[in-house]
Amino acid sequence: MKTVKPTDLERQSRLGPAIRLYLLTGPDEATMAAVANHLVGLAGKDAERVDLSGSQLAQDPSLLAAEAASMSLFSSTRIIRLELAGSGDDALAAVEALLAADNAINPVVATGASVTAKSKLVKLVEASDHAVAAICYQPDRRALVGIAIAAAEEQGLRLANAEAQLLVDLVSGDQALMRREIEKMALYLDAAPDRQRQVAAADIAALGAATHEEDVSACINVALGGKVRELPDMLATAAAVGVAEIRIIRALAIRALALARLRAEVDAGAHPATVVAAKSSGVFWKERDAVTAQLRIWDSLRIARLMSRLLDCERALKSSGTAGAVLFRKLMTDIAHQAARAR
To answer: Among the four residues 111, 188, 222, 229, which has the most C-beta atoms within 10 Å?
Structure first.
């Protein structure tokens, strides 16, 4: 079966009877987790869940097919969650056995952030009528706003576009945090699917995001603004209050995407301040001065190179056995120095 979009799976109201394996991959772990949770939920709240890992399947390739064919002793339904590491090759033989088995009554939901679209596992899934794959990429700002509005609606909240943009800014595009904030708002406003509540900007400000977003924004602006001397203290402060390195990298990637979009207008002849001040810019009012300055520093070529290095750094931070933390600090330093030279 061909690869589908993650949203196609999120829209499903039941698990396909012919589908034995749902494979979710890609760099956007938040979307991957949300889709996986949705699919697992479709099995029913009383379903028995079996958790397996790629390393287990590497030791016993027949295990996956056996579990998929086994009836539950405790529930009428059963679902298998498979966590994959690396390229997913350690589970390749097990998946082949699953797809070739005569009988499989329990669906498998597999996730692996490092499994690429060109991997043997994805190719195997695409060639089968009993499996489906979805590659989860980091959504752009417009998509994030749509995700926020849809997630709020599920909780009984009416979230207008402007408030959705504010929420996206507050969580620096982190979908997992955004969904938690929406759940908090639903409790705060006593909302439910049958009890609709309108979300105001004041509600978002009152709750705030519980992950030190000011520190994340400060790190972004210090690095992209070329404030080399301020960077060590800023990174130390962020670490002291518990801001994860990968959150800063992801927030930088979201800012880089925004800069790329706005830079295209500047390259077409528009003034940076005019572009940022426009309602269509999507820039939070507190960030307008910083983003305007960054647009003057970062041209399209620099932004493209920056996005590539951010992706490499995120992969290193998510992989075991790498010097991810060292690479993170070097990248932040390099960004600040490059911005300082271009000012």
So the answer is: 222
